[in-house]
Each structure stands twice: as C-alpha cells, then as structure tokens.
Design a protein that fits this description.
Aspartate Aminotransferase, domain 1; binds 4'-deoxy-4'-aminopyridoxal-5'-phosphate; alanine-glyoxylate transaminase activity; globular; 2 domains; Aminotrans_V_dom
Length: about 425
C-alpha cells in the first residue's frame, strides 16, 4: 500500500483571512498597533530582548490587576490555562472547594477542580443573577472550604459579580479566594490587593486587546504558602507555579528554561497593556461603562430586552439580550455577518437559545462600534425601530415581508422576497 501523503491542496492556495468585526464574547479585534507588534521578528525564549518584554508584561499585569504580587505572569495558554493553573497548584486530593455556579464558567471550574481530586461543593444561582455576601458567608460557614471560586464577569450570562468584601470573608473562614477575570479585566475595576484576592487570572484576547494564547495570573503570599505546604507535588509540570515563576523571574533567581514561550504573543500582549497604561485604567473602564450604557439604551430603544434584570449586575464588557419570540437568531447573525462583517454571539451553556451576546471589549469598546451593531440587524423591526411616520398598514406589510425575508434567508441566500423587502424598507426611510 502506498503510504505517501501528498501536500494538501488547501495549503497550496494563498492564505486569505477576512476582516471581521468581532463583537461576540471574544476574542475582540486587535488594534493595528498590536497587529504590527505581531509582525516583528521572532525571538528566542531566553533572549534578553524576549525576557525584557516578559518583564514589561509582568509590570503591565501588576498594573491591570492592581497588585504588587511578585508572582504575576502570563502562562502560555488561553483563559482556561489560568483556571487550570490556579486549581492545579492550589487543590490537593480531598480538599473541599466551594464553586459558585451561575453560568458555564463556574461549572467549568468545578469540573477542573474535581479532576485534581477536590471535594467540590456547588453554590448555585439562577443565570442572570450574582451572589451576595450573606449567601457566600453562609456557604463558607457550612462547607468550610479551602478555596472559594468566583467569576467576576460571567460571559455566558452577562453578569457582573461584585467582589468587595469577599476577600475579608474568606480570610475569616481561612479559605483562599480565586477569581476569574477573563471577560472583565480592564473593562471593570479590579483591585486584587485591596480586595484581598489570593489568585486571579484572565485571558489576553478580550479587553487586553491581543490574540488568545496567554493567560495572565497572579498569586499572593497566602496562596503561595498553601502551595508550599502541599503534601503532594503539583501534578502537572506545565502549570507548576514554582517553575513558571522562575521562568518569569518572579523569584529573583536566575531564569531557567521551562517552555518555549511565543515571543510574538508576548510582544502583542506588551502592546495591548501599553495601550491600557497610556489611556489609564480608570479611563479604560469608564470607556467600557459608557459603551455598555449606549448599547443598552440603544437596544431598549429597539424594543429589545436585556437578560440581566438588575442594572448593577450587568457586565459592561458583554451584554446578553433576550431573543424575542419571533426573531430568528441564526438569521440575525447571518445578516450581520453578510452585510456588516459583524460577529454577534449566541448564548452559551444555560443561556443557549435564550440570548444573543454582544461584546464591546478593548479596541472594540467605542461609540462607533455600538452604533454599528445597533444597525446591523436584519430589517425585521427588531433591530430597527419602526419609524413614527409609518402608518399601521405599512407596518403590517413590513412585518409580513420581514417574516418572509427571515424565513427565506434561513433557507439560504437573498431571495426575491428579501430583495423586495429591502427595496420596500429603503423606500420607507425618510
Ligand atoms: N472564563 C471566562 C469568564 C470566559 O469568558 C472564558 C472565555 N470566554 C474563559 C474563562 C475561558 O477562556 P478561553 O476560551 O480563552 O480558554
């Protein structure tokens, strides 16, 4: 039998990547400055220029996390790597770990903790809600965990979890606090030291404005003491904070090879962090809040309903919008992509089929992008407000045509009905 495998035809064609506006739940678009950084020469993973970049990323991460923790670095992985690294280092078999679950990310953390042998206890809330201190305290008193896990920005539900007061509570119950900020860091206030968070991690591809591939993480001295006193070794070499903090020169000892970091990704994250440092964290978070407000007002103006009822529980970076009964989400997404090259995400986990999600993060958190996404829906009457000048007869006709168009665009392409409707609607514009 001939075992030769020939060069694949797909690889012999020129590379072509469309330019999309990534307004889903992440990744977000990178700025031209970050894209330029990625076109610079590749460096060796221990070259002085590369380690200099790593040092700059480290101080940038201390800034965005608002921490003086020496053990602050970016592990070579997507956001999941931060979750893995936190659990792998902190959890020993039999440890009671309390995980708050109100969306997919708590569930994922519970799964990961269990794989490291944790006795996982779940504190659950309805998707769309967050946890108050009283409920957290009664769960801590009941379960007496060694670790409490919270997600600051639950991207599957669009919920913001306040963290003030949780750290001191955890100290009172002799428990470590681990926080996921993959979808929130840089877009909302994060005060790692002030809020007494023991381990905090994030991802590079959302507000931080670079591609996926690096997971920022920071450990304080309480977390490091727990790791120091482990009875069993950290079970995965790649996630071991002792080795990684040496490679990132957090311990003051000479750097040693741990793995081959991508200098390209480090350059990109360095630039993403530099952009935030130049803007200033406070201005950056204020920009995200202002964009979220503009989007929420616009969506309400279009007759759409936000999934998260309480205003102060809404995550500024990712907005969840209830799918109206007569809106075909697939048609909406296809329309936005085909006509505006905009990505709009569907729901995830508990919100699948219930919401669509709009992310405004980093380079994409601008008024222009908000206005663009507000006009990117199909002309169904849901993402374009009915004009006051349209009579009820015309409105009825528009609804009929809209339904026709949506059904036909689901089954594929631009049909005569769709064209007719487009022409009809453009005629209605003043
Ligand atoms: N946590 C949260 C809150 C997230 O939003 C995500 C990604 N959407 C992750 C963890 C996992 O990150 P990644 O996909 O980069 O592994």
């Amino acid at each position: 039998m001939d075992s030769y495998v020939g060069p694949p035809a797909s690889l012999l064609k020129p590379l072509s990547i469309p330019n999309k506006v990534l307004l889903g739940a992440g990744p977000a678009n990178c700025s031209p400055r970050v894209l330029h950084a990625m076109s610079l020469p590749v460096l060796g993973h221990l070259h002085p220029e590369c380690t200099q970049l790593m040092d700059e990323v480290k101080v940038g991460l201390q800034y965005v996390f608002q921490t003086k923790n020496p053990v602050t670095l970016a592990v070579s992985a997507s956001g999941h790597g931060g979750m893995e690294m936190a659990m792998c280092n902190l959890v020993e078999p039999g440890d009671v770990v309390l995980v708050t679950v109100a969306g997919i990310w708590g569930k994922r953390a519970a799964d990961i903790a269990a794989r490291y042998g944790a006795d996982v206890r779940i504190l659950e809330k309805n998707p769309g809600e967050n946890f108050c201190l009283r409920i957290l305290e009664s769960a801590l008193a009941r379960h007496r965990p060694v670790l409490l896990f919270l997600v600051q920005g639950e991207s599957s539900t669009g919920v913001y979890q306040p963290l003030q007061g949780v750290g001191p509570l955890c100290r009172r119950y002799d428990c470590l606090l681990v926080v996921d900020t993959v979808a929130s860091l840089g877009g909302v206030s994060v005060q790692t030291d002030q809020w007494e968070i023991d381990v905090i991690y994030s991802g590079s591809q959302k507000v931080l404005g670079s591609p996926a591939g690096l997971a920022p993480i920071s450990f304080n001295s309480r977390a490091l003491s727990k790791i120091e006193s482990r009875k069993t070794p950290v079970s995965v070499f790649y996630w071991d904070v002792k080795h990684l903090s040496n490679y990132w020169a957090c311990s003051g000892e000479p750097r040693q090879y741990h793995h081959t970091i991508s200098s390209t990704l480090v350059s990109a994250l360095r630039e993403g962090l530099a952009i935030i440092a130049e803007e200033g964290l406070e201005r950056c978070t204020a920009r995200h809040s202002a964009c979220a407000k503009r989007l929420h007002n616009g969506l309400r103006g279009l007759g759409l309903e936000l999934f998260v009822e309480k205003e102060d529980a809404r995550l500024p970076t990712i907005t969840t919008v209830r799918i109206p009964a007569n809106l075909d989400l697939k048609a909406l997404q296809d329309y936005a992509m085909k006509n505006y090259a905009i990505e709009i995400a569907g729901g995830l986990g508990p919100t699948a089929g219930q919401v669509f999600r709009i992310g405004l993060m980093g380079y994409n958190a601008t008024a222009d992008k908000v206005d663009l996404v507000l006009k990117a829906g199909p002309p169904t009457g849901y993402l374009q407000p009915p004009s006051a000048k349209i009579s009820s007869g015309l409105l009825w006709a528009r609804e009929v045509l809209a339904g026709w168009s949506l059904r036909s665009s689901v089954s594929g392409g631009m049909t005569a009905g769709h064209c007719l409707q487009q022409a009809f609607l453009s005629g209605l514009k003043e």
